[in-house]
Design brief:
Blueprint lengths: L4 H12 L1 H17 L3 H20 L7 H5 L8 H11 L15
Helix pairs in contact: 1-2, 2-3, 2-5, 3-5
Length: about 100
Amino acid sequence: MSLNRYEQTLYDYVKGHADERQHWQHKVRAILADSAEIPGAVARIDSELWRYYEERSSVVPAFGGTERAAGLRRTSMKNLAELLIRLWTEPKPRKPVQPGSDP
């Protein structure tokens, strides 16, 4: 899976800060548990990650600093959202395929 530079920056930051990682692990798990479908959870996490990136941009130099924060344009965090779901949650069991039915 390939992350864009914003996703990679955010992932590296969260990975390197235990309190932030724990916060996001709980958040991802809660959103997934609250969502009926994975695509809906991905969309919610994507949105939350972008809001977090914008907020952190004004205070964390690795995110570009205050001068760049004002000029940020919305960038997808979908790949990062999908990665975090894969890393931090148990896969949902698939329904067994019945013999003689189309898969």
